[in-house]
Give the backbone structure.
Amino acid sequence: MEKYFDVSYIVESVPMLIPFLKVTLMVAGLSVLFGTILGFILAAMKIGNSKIAKKIAYGYTTILRCTPSIVLLFLTYYGIPAIADNFGVNLNDIDKAVFVVITFSLQFAAVMSEVIRTSYESIDRGQFEAAVCVGLSNTQAYWRIILPQAFVVALPNFGNSLLELMKEGALAYTIGLIDIMGKAELIIAGNYNTHALEIYLALAVIYWILSIAIEQLFLKLEKVFSKGKQVITTT
Amino acid sequence: MSEGLDYKFLVETFFVALSGVPTALFITIVALLVALPLGFLLALTRINQFPVLDRVAQIYVSFVRGTPVIIQIFIIYSSVPLLLASIFEKYNIEMNVYDVNPIWYAFIVFSLNTTAILIEVFRSAISTVSKGQLEAAYSVGLTNVQAFRRIIIPQTLVVALPNICTATVNLIKATSLGYALSLQEITLRAKVAANVGYNYVEAYIDIFLVYLILCSLVEYLFKLYEKRLSRYRAVGI
């Protein structure tokens, strides 16, 4: 009888999985890009004076935070083509990666809008006033004084959200995207559903290493950017 | 091809999805019951730098936070039956591994997962309570247990509550992955109902609504509890 658990499968599957890391990272990267842009808009709506815009932005965040990624994923995957169909546009042949990027951009935007808002609000109002006092224009004050400080505050949360996004991205296999998780499923199917455990362990190790690498990168970044930060030391 | 939404199906399936709520809540509650005390104890080992255990807790947290939940589910789902099978074989227990209710696997996965998240939550919360509080409690003659029960834990809870709320909501959302364990919860029930007539859009709208209601409700309850607890909040410095 064959062995239940065979370590050699773990070792063998890693080189097969690594090339598909590209897809995972690309989807995550694009979602971060679009999500951050949308997050900026939402944060601006939350900070701004318009009451309606505020309501919309907060409502959006609440709704998106209450929706499991997998549900949102399927909702976009089935919903967008159905809506487009009503306007006579056929979206059925579109690349699945597009739906994944849309889903995670929407989700990331909700998280990012909170990250941006809180980091903006953590900067003392006096900083802006002082900047305007010394003769900077509004744009200059935002660009040179507020943004660099808010950026440092936002960095750890941004890193965490990015990790979260990357992990949630593993669900993209459910709509048939061949990323690293999808490839793992294919390998398992190719083995007639045996030795699934070994493949999943290999996958877990890859994700783990990736997460630690990203975490360390953000710690380094934080150190680099908080150089000029003045901290009120309390003893 | 598209004829708009099938409203009759939409309403019917909403109740089908709603019938999965008890399962989702059951898993959530069991996972929290396991994870809250365990997370708190392991957080204490991290803070007091208890030898060996604190390293184990650290690696454990790093692993759980560094890998997707779905992979954790698959790992448990494919490893625990193997272990069980070998145990059953060894002790000659007459039981088929495949008869085990998948909800047990869900308990294991989500308890382990939530424990790791709560370790971090409690760790940061405990470290916000100043050491002087514990010393003051000792100096007025409280025992270790009393000091923790009456002084440290209430203050920790106030700080930790918003994060526990987030963890709970995330847990409820994560139970949607129970489909991988063929668990009869919200997502799977609605999806099965949709399989008949390919009404996937309607089914997912229903699932979306159910989770929205459920999570908003949980958030609201936590807000209420937070208000009650806030009398323990340290005022001043």
In short: The CA atoms of residues 72 and 177 of chain B lie 11 Å apart. Chain B touches chain A through 37 residues (CB under 8 Å). DSSP finds nine helices and no strands in chain B. Chain B has one domain: 7-232.
